[in-house]
Fold this protein.
Amino acid sequence: MGRRPVTSGLSHVSPQGGARMVDVSGKNVTERTATAEAWVTVGPLIAGLLRESGSVAKGDVLGTARLAGILAAKRTSELIPMCHPLAIDLVELEAELEENRVRLVARVACDGKTGVEMEALTAAAIAALTVYDMVKSAGKEVEIGPVRLLEKTGGKSGHWRREGHAGG
Amino acid sequence: MGRRPVTSGLSHVSPQGGARMVDVSGKNVTERTATAEAWVTVGPLIAGLLRESGSVAKGDVLGTARLAGILAAKRTSELIPMCHPLAIDLVELEAELEENRVRLVARVACDGKTGVEMEALTAAAIAALTVYDMVKSAGKEVEIGPVRLLEKTGGKSGHWRREGHAGG
Amino acid sequence: MGRRPVTSGLSHVSPQGGARMVDVSGKNVTERTATAEAWVTVGPLIAGLLRESGSVAKGDVLGTARLAGILAAKRTSELIPMCHPLAIDLVELEAELEENRVRLVARVACDGKTGVEMEALTAAAIAALTVYDMVKSAGKEVEIGPVRLLEKTGGKSGHWRREGHAGG
Amino acid sequence: MGRRPVTSGLSHVSPQGGARMVDVSGKNVTERTATAEAWVTVGPLIAGLLRESGSVAKGDVLGTARLAGILAAKRTSELIPMCHPLAIDLVELEAELEENRVRLVARVACDGKTGVEMEALTAAAIAALTVYDMVKSAGKEVEIGPVRLLEKTGGKSGHWRREGHAGG
Amino acid sequence: MGRRPVTSGLSHVSPQGGARMVDVSGKNVTERTATAEAWVTVGPLIAGLLRESGSVAKGDVLGTARLAGILAAKRTSELIPMCHPLAIDLVELEAELEENRVRLVARVACDGKTGVEMEALTAAAIAALTVYDMVKSAGKEVEIGPVRLLEKTGGKSGHWRREGHAGG
Amino acid sequence: MGRRPVTSGLSHVSPQGGARMVDVSGKNVTERTATAEAWVTVGPLIAGLLRESGSVAKGDVLGTARLAGILAAKRTSELIPMCHPLAIDLVELEAELEENRVRLVARVACDGKTGVEMEALTAAAIAALTVYDMVKSAGKEVEIGPVRLLEKTGGKSGHWRREGHAGG
């Protein structure tokens, strides 16, 4: 293709520099899991509104976010170009208000040939964006972050856990 | 519906506590813009790999992320439950490596009845997730954040800019 | 095309017998609304389980159904071949348990060139299917129906209301 | 999460009352089938129009409905929040005019870890909605219903058939 | 971004070389149409099978292709990265067997701020791919092409017609 | 269904003339590959613009086309009615300028029960449409074609290669 060959050290960037889906044909099907979290700093005003409305209303902001995250996990391969379509076996999404922040935690499991880290991260991120959408009328300074992987199991790299994460 | 009425102070939560799409029928069509950013802390090892590969390879990690963000902006109303479908007029997405972090900035414009903040945030977030996907083979500690609105114009609340953001 | 010309009396079937999207270019943009309902006969066993679990659990079966209906309204033109894409302004979806049946009511509004009856019906139907999915572990005899239009306003045919429907 | 634990007797409602996808990781892959039907009561006027137009035009109303149903079966996990993505092996959809009603019957097969009842029901329901869309210019009183499962095979609950359904 | 500035003479390639959606905010809404065709060279064996099966079976191969094209027109902005979402007003798709080739012609109309050439081309192309899928069991040598724009109206560039195309 | 039985010799057309998804339940999972190409005749003016802009800008026209093709491969079963959903293992898409034409080549691999010819053809076709979209401001006479299968492996029909294609 006329491009100088480049060794990139990144699996999604081919030697010629082009992007590619990692070839997983022929790989073993094993059990894969991943857990990711996303935080939304809503600030004291919005946190207060969420608490004042009682568990029902809070359930609807967080409940909507949870469903949006579960649905988004199933759409990850449509949104992230080099992701493989997967037949996901499980998506769990928890949403809780902790002081002035909302914490979303997504856990995904799949018997498959490739990991589900992107499914977990995408679920948590979209859930966080949904929280933002539900509360934005009360404040645009709301921030999302961090969004990060907490733990994964299965596959060639096996078990990995972020330092400081208790697991489970 | 048997639920106690609640005043929630949040536009997306109805007086009865249920979630709802804000009714924008009858509102004026005006020009709306929004700018949002997302940061990806890739760390020195991955930043080095991106720089060593030269502009072509870096272009492919960042180029893929930019396209994923542009496509995601157009799908925001499918992902965020209470968002309205919009006929977006423009999506711009910039991606740059700054030291050990990648910065994505999305700008969206629309002649419409409702703002485009969620389109800009979703574009930036999905672009960030794509960067993560492209580099994750070299490190799972990568973190996304903050993801936040920088500026918006149009509509009832008019012009808003985050403190410290130069604009443009 | 070699087919005998046929006058069909149906707007979506062209004189040659082929299916087509009704041409709405050049039509006026006016306010359109539509209300539709869907019933799910869950039977006394499941109705009891829903009531015993209290408003929180019931909220999650019905809450999930409501969100699924709202999201489906926005996807109607992808599912129903001859439907036009619309920039929907509002979707409201109510879900209530009435004796041994769940009733879903969807109301859709749009400033547009064509009606929103299919959006309301699709929202109600998908919400009903979601209720079925949530309860099916306790009984496969559950039936969905009727699913029908209750009321519509706007456009050439103006206001129509099903006999016996109080409106609102 | 601060909610009182609840035993709900419903597999899609977690002990805490939250909604969840049933965890099917580790389950055996077996052959699954499901058959569902949907009826559309079009009334004598529309039934007459469908018959007068001959088999070609009727084929297009029913043919469009059949294709919409087949396509919808493949999209079930996008529409029904707690449904798992499946690699469907077969979708068959029949559509016939019986007196003043249209009958749609969908049969779905899959070698998988979970049943395909929702795929069959969704296919039948969307096909019915498509019939409604094709004929609605001639009458808004058209009703859809019942939509219900007729038969299923495979999985833990094995073979189930609705009373009065001949099978096949 | 560290790239040398480049004047590209192409509207979708920004001065810095990056891809971008053309900014159509503020442009006038006018009537836009486009007509495109796609040919499928099926060869004499398959053409004979299509004719022998009579108009019903042929109608199903061509009928399926027509519906797939109409649905694809509505999804163009999801598939073509720099395309704008549009509220399409009309899609017409004709499919005919001409000797050993199938000809698909798509016509799209929209009151909008940007042209509908991509919608027409995508409709014709997906219809052609569908014909291929329906007949491929009888021959893999089938070729698609040409796929090309025949005519367009509206917008800044006004009326354009391919030489040799009669129009209409 | 009242239609005369017809033997059509085409697997996707049922004996009664109706369209159907081929039943692949119970078939063996084997490795499947397919390679397809699509050509875009851009003409000397546009080819010159692409060359003058240097590899960076050319990379963006072709880079955008490549990503669009990879994403489209994953969506084939949504676009082509009788296609089965597949868990694709690999999509590679090459894009090169050859004189006055752009050549796109897509290769798809999957461990599955059915071939991936449609995935490869769809990827190549959508990539070609994307090239057209990126260059159309400089010329509407651009033509796409041929789009055709070059090679396939696996499944009942085993290895097939188009005459004149070197393979690989």
In short: The interface with chain B takes residues 55-56, 59-60, 63-64, 67, 71 of chain F (CB under 8 Å). Strands of chain F lie at 30-41, 90-98, 101-112, 143-153, 160-161. Residues 1-7, 54-58 of chain F have pLDDT under 50 and may be disordered.
